[in-house]
Amino acid sequence: IIVVLTQSSREILQQVYPFAVGKVYVIPHGIHPTAFSSTELAKKKLKLENATILSTFGLLSRGKGIEYVIQTLPEVIKKYPSVLYLIIGETHPVVRRKEGEHYRIELSKLITKLGLKKHVKFYDHYVNLEHLIEFLKATDIYISSSINPNQAVSGTLSYALGTGRAVITTEFAQAKEIITPSIGRLVPIKDSPAMTAALLDLLRDKNKLKEMHRLAYEVTRPMLWSNV
Predict the structure, then answer these.
(1) Which of 50, 173, 185, 214 has a 20 to 30 A CA-CA distance from 157?
(2) What's the pLDDT tens digit per position in 117-166?
(3) Quick one: 169 exposed, middle or buried, by C-beta within 10 A (0-12, 13-18, 19+)?
(4) Whole-Å CA distances, 227 to 62, 126, 134, 217
(5) How confident is the model at residue 126, as a pLDDT?
């Protein structure tokens, strides 16, 4: 028996190894049990009241494609000046050994160049699970901006959806399988204009965004670790 996390992974294995047909099973990436809530309470706990929160979390590396998210913000902020983008997590230890904090420094320079210091905040340290869930609960739109089209699955995307948050994500395998217009938007990799359009689309209607939160929570219940 072979276990994979996405249907596309099963299809690849069965194409490359025909004898695997009937032996490959899909078990999705797990998510943590947490009660559904609106963003307001978590924003108050984190002292983020009155902000529209976008977030990305995980070990920082160039593969995250965060510069493409930052490039969307000037146009978005023109219309929604309360937007605050949180980049949560320390630099990946392997990346830090190889190049130090060069990528984070490059992102900081881009933020300064675009005049976004009031609209982007780094939490550049390890965040434990309890604190991470609070950040996700405070999030209005989670952004998964991976630049690797061959990435099979994303734990960060799974956790964000499992907390009941709308997402904008680049088109990698898991995202293409689970993201529907009712819970998020798919955008091409390295395409800042497409991401800008998706952000403006989701921010346009607060009630619709709240409904997307509820639906994201509901459709991910089979992914609970207890079920997985």
Answers:
(1) 50
(2) 999 999 998 889 999 999 999 999 999 999 999 899 999 999 999 999 99
(3) buried
(4) 33, 28, 23, 15
(5) 87
Residue range 204-222: mean pLDDT, rounded: 97
222: tokens are: 């089979």
Reading phi first (left if > 0) and then psi (alpha if -120 to 50, else beta), residue 27 is in beta
Angle between helices 206-219 and 155-162 (to 10 degrees): 110
Q: Is 38 helix (H, G, I), strand (E, B) or coil?
A: coil
The label of the residue with tokens 């630049």 reads 147
- Kindly list the distances between the CA atom of residue 163 and the CA atoms of 33, 139, 216, in Å, as whole numbers in the listed order: 8, 10, 8
Q: 0.85 cut: is pTM over it?
A: yes
